[in-house]
């Protein structure tokens, strides 16, 4: 079975199977209706979350099974917290909930400042014990990495260590990965696809369009 | 393998599905499902002799799934307009053997005997013609053929295992027939008597009575003869037990004498990641609550379904116009999927199937093991009509493969519906080696996805580092649907 590979230091790419390319073909396609876009994006998100969970450490454990048998299995270690970057990141919360029922979820709202054209933090709501948790940072697209870096900054200011953070996204631009890792090399990026480049408008090429719009609006 | 070769190759072969591998042909055994060796009983006797009552009694007493009753009543020849006029004035001879389509009946039984689908016509006595309705019958363990001329045609006699003639005095037959015709069929007395004298009795004497010599067993006095009926039923039960023992023995023998290497076949086993080990731990543990069990079984099911889609499918290259008007070298899946669950163990996948496929076609099979012998029995099948015509891959779900017998039966049902063996993907969570051996021994081209595979002997295979044995509790007991549905 195909397994996710670390293609670069702390960059984990989902196995590029025909099946995954097939799923991406659906969500990238401009002719895909919103209901299908949501359905297939959710399936990819599920795969990303499963891969993210796979990165977490486990502890060997002897499991007492029915009938008196024992099984040398594994116990999940550590607590998790999802942090979504509003609004597109919220689309990934359901996928996380499908794998971790009672997971805590924090939110960060970052928007581009009209005057400076730089990302600006508007709002944050995070669990108090966030520093003791593994963080799944949720944002479907890693383009320039601006908002993601600001989000990491917020998390670090709350006492989270960068090794505790896993950044889950569906599509990443090489420029974004580079910029992000030059600042936070210890944050693991888990992505479903790495595209060619950014265009002059900072859109990912060939990309899929505006994820938030396609998931919520169009 | 790179799935994207510059967008020029028009077809991408499924990853991992390599059907050309050398599978030793001599190793392939044949599975003989019980419905290709149905036990066939013929019951003949005159009109009013009590054939139908005795057939019902047999069905009731042997209590076997997949028992079907085929009545000669549905095999009358359609009448011409002239004949129909005669029929409506009670002047047509329905009691002569020529009024029956014996060829069609022979062909029908023959089809059923070879595990095929048979279409049974429905004859209307009001119209004196075949109706547009038909009944489709697929597979049978026991077939009871009942009619005046059940023991008349040599071709039918040759296929029967037990031939019964119900010998009731013609006076009693007449009395019963009059009661039935007048009370229940709205005839008048003169008409009923006329028909008896003109057609029923002469034909009885000339054609029906002589077939008595073809019978293995003659039951005088019909249903009133309780001793004869009891002896007959005991005999049938004994024969059925023998048949079921042979079936089981045959199933057990499959897969014993063969070389088994997982990678020789189209078998994919879930990679042993941290998460998978963690989920297994929760599903195996005796301390897990039911709500946790259901939640983690659903998670496991999604993982297995994703693996099933990862392999075994074909894609075509396609240039996709993306949301920002760029083009992307994408892939389009060539086939759809149809999901078939084996009730009720396979139904645990249902929630995850819905999660992974927006609008999938679903089918169901009910296969249960006889509680005393363990013999798998097909009780019910509901498959999408013309399942073989969609060019889809068929995902067949069963959460546990233990003896393999149920899965073999399920696969056979699909093949009988003309599905190609290599279009079937069997998806299961826990499987025993002996079960999988039996399956691939009979169906070497089938695709299988397994969550965890145990071994017959202690071994340290890559897929079974824990050294799970077939005899371990998790693999031997059907506990998944019990816990999932709380039916334990």
Q: How does this structure look, described?
A:
The complex is a heterodimer of chains A (about 220) and B (about 500). In chain A, β5 (about 80-85), α3 (about 95-100) and β6 form a beta-alpha-beta unit. The longest helix of chain A has 21 residues, at about 35-55. In chain A, α1 crosses α2 (about 35-55), α2 crosses α3 and α2 (about 35-55) crosses α6. The model of chain A has no long low-confidence stretch (mean pLDDT about 90). Chain A has about 220 residues and is an alpha/beta fold. Chain A has one domain (about 10-215): Rossmann fold (3-Layer(aba) Sandwich), CATH 3.40.50. Chain A has six helices and 14 strands. Chain B has about 500 residues and is α/β, with parallel strands linked by helices. Chain B has two domains: about 35-250, P-loop containing nucleotide triphosphate hydrolases (Rossmann fold), CATH 3.40.50.300; about 260-320 and about 330-475, Rossmann fold (3-Layer(aba) Sandwich). Chain B contains 14 helices and 18 strands. Chain B has helices spanning about 50-60, 80-90, 100-115, 155-160, 170-185, 190-210, 225-255, 275-285, 290-310, 350-355, 405-415, 435-440, 475, 480-485, and strands spanning about 10, 40-45, 65-70, 115-125, 130-140, 140-145, 160-165, 215-220, 265-270, 315-320, 325-335, 335-345, 360-370, 375-380, 395, 400, 425-430, 445-455. In chain B, β10 and β11 (about 325-335) form a beta hairpin.
């Amino acid at each position: 079975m195909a397994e996710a590979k670390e293609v670069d230091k702390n960059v984990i790419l989902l196995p590029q199977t025909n099946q995954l390319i097939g799923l991406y073909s659906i969500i990238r396609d401009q002719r895909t209706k919103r209901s299908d876009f949501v359905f297939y994006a959710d399936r990819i998100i599920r795969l990303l979350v499963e891969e993210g969970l796979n990165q977490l450490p486990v502890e060997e454990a002897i499991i007492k099974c029915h009938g008196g048998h024992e099984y040398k299995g594994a116990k999940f270690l550590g607590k998790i917290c999802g942090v979504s970057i509003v609004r597109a990141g919220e689309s990934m919360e359901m996928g996380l909930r499908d794998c971790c029922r009672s997971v805590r979820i924090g939110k960060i709202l970052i928007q581009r400042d009209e005057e400076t054209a730089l990302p600006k933090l508007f709002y944050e709501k995070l669990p108090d014990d966030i520093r003791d948790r593994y963080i799944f940072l949720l944002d479907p697209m890693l383009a320039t990495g601006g908002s993601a870096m600001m989000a990491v900054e917020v998390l670090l200011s709350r006492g989270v260590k960068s090794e505790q953070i896993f950044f889950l996204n569906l599509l990443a631009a090489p420029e974004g990965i580079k910029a992000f890792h030059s600042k936070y090399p210890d944050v693991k990026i888990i992505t479903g696809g790495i595209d060619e480049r950014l265009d002059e408008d900072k859109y990912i090429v060939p990309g899929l369009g505006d994820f938030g719009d396609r998931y919520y609006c169009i | 393998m790179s799935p994207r070769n510059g967008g020029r190759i028009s077809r991408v072969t499924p990853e991992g599905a390599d059907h050309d591998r050398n599978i030793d042909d001599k190793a392939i055994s044949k599975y003989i499902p019980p419905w290709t060796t149905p036990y066939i009983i013929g019951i003949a006797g005159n009109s009013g002799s009590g054939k139908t009552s005795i057939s019902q009694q047999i069905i009731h007493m042997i209590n076997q799934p997949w028992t079907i009753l085929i009545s000669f009543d549905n095999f009358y020849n359609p009448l011409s307009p002239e004949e129909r006029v005669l029929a409506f004035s009670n002047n047509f001879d329905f009691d002569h053997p020529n009024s029956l389509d014996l060829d069609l009946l022979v062909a029908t039984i023959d089809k059923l005997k070879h595990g095929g689908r048979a279409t049974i016509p429905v004859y209307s006595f009001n119209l004196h013609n075949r109706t547009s309705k038909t009944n489709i019958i697929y597979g049978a363990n026991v077939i009871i053929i009942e009619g005046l001329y059940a023991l008349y045609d040599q071709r039918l006699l040759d296929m029967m295992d037990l031939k019964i003639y119900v010998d009731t005095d013609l006076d009693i037959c007449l009395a019963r027939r009059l009661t039935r015709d007048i009370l229940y069929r709205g005839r008048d007395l003169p008409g009923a008597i006329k028909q008896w004298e003109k057609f029923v009795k002469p034909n009885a004497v000339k054609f029906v009575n002589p077939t008595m010599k073809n019978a293995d067993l003659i039951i005088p006095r019909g249903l009133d003869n309780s001793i004869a009926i009891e002896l007959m039923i005991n005999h049938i039960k004994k024969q059925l037990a023998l048949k079921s023992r042979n079936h089981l023995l045959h199933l057990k023998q499959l897969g014993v004498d063969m070389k088994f290497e997982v990678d020789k076949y189209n078998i994919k086993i879930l990679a042993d990641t941290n998460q998978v080990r963690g989920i297994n731990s929760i599903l195996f543990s005796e301390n897990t609550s039911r709500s946790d069990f259901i939640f983690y079984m659903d998670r496991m099911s999604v993982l297995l379904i994703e693996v099933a889609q990862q392999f075994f499918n074909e894609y075509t290259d396609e240039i996709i116009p993306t949301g920002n008007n760029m083009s992307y070298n994408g892939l389009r899946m060539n086939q759809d999927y149809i999901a078939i669950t084996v009730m009720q163990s396979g139904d645990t996948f249902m929630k995850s199937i819905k999660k992974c496929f927006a609008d999938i076609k679903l089918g169901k099979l009910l296969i249960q093991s006889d509680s005393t012998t363990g013999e798998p029995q097909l009780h019910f099948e509901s498959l999408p009509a013309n399942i073989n015509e969609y060019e889809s891959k068929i995902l067949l779900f069963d959460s546990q493969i233990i003896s393999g017998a149920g899965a073999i039966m399920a696969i056979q049902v699909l093949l009988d519906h003309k599905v190609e063996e290599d279009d079937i993907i069997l998806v299961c969570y826990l499987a025993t080696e002996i079960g999988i051996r039996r399956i691939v021994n009979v169906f070497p081209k089938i695709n299988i996805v397994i969550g965890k595979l145990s071994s017959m002997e202690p071994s340290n295979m890559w897929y079974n580092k824990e050294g799970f044995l077939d005899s371990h509790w998790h693999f031997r007991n059907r506990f998944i649907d019990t816990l999932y549905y709380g039916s334990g």
